[in-house]
């Protein structure tokens, strides 16, 4: 398995790795335990990005975006196993970053 991207969640509780094998792996970085495998991509995955502002009121809301060579971005709530929202693009995804909105005063 060749890892193409990895990212810690904002609070450091989870680590996401994506790879050429089309799987998204969610890890506990403290114990090295594999928590979940997400397998809806049909080609290799090149990017992942956690929501930098998890919903502190609802610990069961963890949003992760993944994208790759299949021209899809999948938006996952990792606490709802296997379910995701799909965004289809015209080209492959190489990088994903959440945009931080800051209001100016």
SSE sequence, one letter per element:
EEEEEEEE
Main beta sheet, described? 4 strands, antiparallel
Chain-averaged pLDDT = 86
Describe the oligomeric state of these chains in a short phrase.
single chain
Outline: globular
Q: Strand sequence of the main sheet, in spatial order?
A: 1-2-3-4
Tally of helical runs: 0
- Structural class, by secondary structure, is mainly beta
Using the CA coordinates, give the radius of gyration.
Answer: 14 Å
Distance between the termini: 48 Å
The number of E-state strands comes to 8
Our count of domains comes out at 1
Low-pLDDT residue spans = none
List the topology elements.
Elements: E1 3-8, E2 15-19, E3 24-28, E4 33-38, E5 45-50, E6 63-68, E7 72-77, E8 84-88
Antiparallel strand pairs: 1-2, 2-3, 3-4, 5-6, 6-7, 7-8
């Amino acid at each position: 398995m060749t890892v193409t991207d990895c990212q810690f969640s904002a609070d450091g509780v989870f680590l996401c790795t994506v790879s050429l094998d089309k799987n998204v792996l969610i890890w506990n970085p403290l114990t090295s335990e594999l928590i979940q495998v997400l397998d809806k991509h049909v080609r290799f995955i090149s990017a992942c990005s956690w929501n930098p502002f998890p919903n502190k009121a609802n610990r069961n809301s963890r949003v992760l975006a993944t994208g790759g060579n299949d021209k899809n971005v999948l938006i996952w709530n990792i606490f709802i196993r296997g379910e995701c929202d799909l965004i289809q693009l015209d080209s492959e995804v190489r990088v994903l970053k959440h945009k931080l909105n800051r209001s100016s005063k």
